[in-house]
Amino acid sequence: MRSQLQLHTLHGGILPPVASDLHERHIEDVVKEALASSVDENGTCSIDAVAVTTKPGMAASLLVGLRHAKQVCQRLGVPLVPIHHMEAHALTLEFPFLVLLISGGHCLLGIAEGVDKFVLLGKTLDDAPGEAFDKIARRLKLSNLAEFSNVSGGHAIEGAAAGGDPSRYHVAEPLLQYKNCDFSFAGIKNSTRAIIIAEENRDGVVGDELLKGVRDLCASVQVAIARHLLRRVIRGIFYYRHQQSFIKSLYFKVVSGGVACNSFIRRSLETGCGPLGVELVAPPPRLCTDNGVMVAWNGVERWSRNLGIVPLEKLQVVDIQPK
Q1: What is the pLDDT of residues 118-169, one digit of tens each?
Q2: Residue 226 and residue 262 in one domain
Q3: Which domain range does residue 27 map to?
Q4: Can you spell out the DSSP letters for 281-293?
Q5: Is residue 190 assigned to a domain?
Q6: Please, which residues have CB within 8 angstroms of residue 180's CB and are 6 or more apart in sequence?
Q7: What is the pTM assigned to this prediction?
Q8: How far apart are the first and last CA of the chain?
Q9: Does residue 260 sit in the same domain as residue 297?
Q10: Distance between CA atoms of residues 196 and 200, nearest Å
Q11: CB contact set of 279 (below 8 Å; sequence gap of 6+)
C-alpha cells in the first residue's frame, strides 16, 4: 500500500511529527484502496471487522490510525479489533514458540503460548538494537558514502560490514555478568563511540572524513550485537525448557524491524540455535518491519477466537496506549 521508509531514511531515523504527518496524508487513499479490494463481483463487501494498532507506539500516529478505523467500523457496521503491534509481529506459527522482537524501538524475548498469552523472558534495559545501529551509523558518517546515502543506519552498517574484518576492533558485549535474558545496547553504542573517538584523534579525522577502518568497525559492531542477541536467546531457551520440561521443541522467530532484516544476524541466530533443535522462522525482510499485513493477520486470529472484539456501541471507549 504505502511505505514511509525512504523518507525516514533521509532523516536518519523516525521523527514522530514527520511520521504522523505522513500517516495523515496517505491514510485516506490506503483505506479507499483496501475497501475497494474487499468488494466482490456482486458488489458485496467482505469485511467482517477492522483491526487497528492501538499500542505501543508513537501517540500521534496511533491516533490517526484509530480515528480512521473507527470511522470505517461505523460506515460498514462492523466491530473493531484493537491490536498490540508487537504481538502482531509474532503471531503466525503453531504455539508455543520462542519470539525475538528486534527493532528500532523494541527488543523483547518471550514465549508465545497463545494468541493473547505471552511469557516475557527478557527486554532491553536501555536502547533498542535498531536505535543503536542508527546512532552508530550517524556517528560513523556512513551516509557520506554514496552507496549508503539513501538507506537506514542498520542497512548501512550491514553493507559496510560485508567488506570488513570484525577482529580488528573489540566492541565490548554488555551484561555478561548477569545471568538473565535482558538486553543492553547502550553499552555497545558507548563502547563503539569510545573506539571512534580514539581512532579519530589518532588519525586526525575531521569534518566529513571517515575512519580508515570504518568497514572493520561496522563488522565488529555487527558481531557484538549478534553475539549479545544469541547469548540471551540461548539462555532463554534453556530457561524455558527447564521450566516446561514437556516442551520438546520450540520455533524461534525473528520478526520485528530493520534489525530482523539483517542477514548476518539471521544467520548467527540460525547457526547458534540450530544445534538446540530450534528452527529459525522469519518472514521476508519486507514484512519484518511494521506493516498492515501482520496487524490484519493478528486481527483474523483474534476474530476467529472471539478475543478482544469491540462492538460498535463501545467504540468510544477504545483509546491508544503509546507505551
Answers
A1: 889 999 999 999 999 999 999 999 999 999 998 889 999 999 999 899 999 9
A2: yes
A3: 5-89+290-317
A4: E---GGGTSS-HH
A5: yes
A6: 122, 235
A7: 0.72
A8: 26
A9: no
A10: 6
A11: 249, 251, 252, 273
